[in-house]
Amino acid sequence: MKSTILRTGLSALTIALLAGATSAAEPHMPHRNNTDYTEDFRPQFHFSPKSEWMNDINALIYQDGVYHMIYQWGRAVRHGGYATSTDLLHWDDKGVALVPQGTFLPKGVPRNVSGQAVYSGSGVLVDGEVAKGITGSTKPAMVTHYTGTKVGTCIAWSNDQGATWHDYKNNPVAHPTKGALPRDPCVFWYEPTKTWILALYEKGTTFYGSKDLIKWDKLSNIKFGFECPDVFQLPLDGDPAKMKWVLQDAVGAYLVGQFNGKEFIKEQKETLVMDKGPDFYAGQSFFPHNLPEKKVIQIAWNDHWNGGVGEKGWQRNATFPVELGLVTHDGKMQVTRTPISAISNLYQKTSATEEKTLTPGENILARIQSKAFDMTAVFDLTDTTAKTIQFKIADRTMTYKIPEQVLVGKKMTKVKRTKEEMAREKKGQWKHVPSKVDLKLKPDFNNQLTIRILVDWSNIEIFAQGGVFSYSENVALDPKSSHVGIAVDGKVKLKSLEFHEIKSIWKK
Q: In this structure, is residue 436 part of a structural domain?
């Protein structure tokens, strides 16, 4: 079977949106084009919609030099927003591609997918007989499996590179439902048996198998996960002879082990979490065999139902794309998250500081004013007399406590939970948002601490320990402040500092 796949969840919607009415022949509804991307809190190098609400990333598909992203759009009813990019940096927000039957859009807008709303799912790229069975043609086609609420697992497809999207004529293909459970199908390809596998949020995670993406047979169930599963392979410590499978859920909790075509077999008992911040949710990845470089690239929703930051005209945004890895760290197999290297193409001003000793009362960043930057600082903690290192960004301060080896943030509002979520939290199955963020962060083996911070108007992402430590937060940074600083309360040796200001992806 000749095929390529890419999966990515469509948690709570798939493709729909727009504002003015268009004819059925037009590809999708355009957003209200009422932004110049300079509003308070508007991210400058993270994707955000032109207008209205976005949340979970739903499908990430690469085809012929273009990255396609389907994201949840529409607060009242989940649709699927649609954006494309040629470099994973600059995005063209095209509007809504899939419009469910329960849409709030004008009556003249064609309802082109099944279900009252489009909940999470995934996307794959196929051709040949598999494509023909769905689209009627052997041409390459992007295919999304999603949960159509009050219907079940459904299919929508496009074989004109996303210009138009169509409903599969025999929906649902599996899991008929009167509501929204089970949900969130994640489809991937299992090469040893030439089988499509579907991971579904269903009393944990249930696996199904198919030869045609239409008929699905139940394979197994594992009692793990809450919403939006994602499944991918990574080489342990970069060794292609030691490939491991990773199963993750919406909050970034994950298991590492093997998948044998029928069931997931975990190889370490402990459930780990790939991002320690309060605003990582529904991370989804491009299937690596479908990309120019054989990497696993992930994008997530940069919010966790925390109330937002007071944006006006649009709400919420995505995390910056990262490359995933898997390393042995502290005796465990742990996922790493690292911003894609292409970020360097956005650097516009760079400052570098060589080794020096920092003392109280000075700020080596005093001459810099910025709220969109990529900064990496390396400290040698061997002979320090300091107890804390403070990173100051506008009116926000993150403090690293040297004796305790923790990163501490300010208090934040706790998320309201449904009864189901609270029950899972009591069982330890849900990563709750604490009233205070205390994050263990040990120095490297040579007592050096390397911290990389991405800041973007209303987003803070922190990476350390080679990517094992990852932290994502959507935060209301003071729009009137571009202050940055590093402050210490004793002597600390700074090994190096690189500060890159980042230009806007929205400006021509």
A: yes
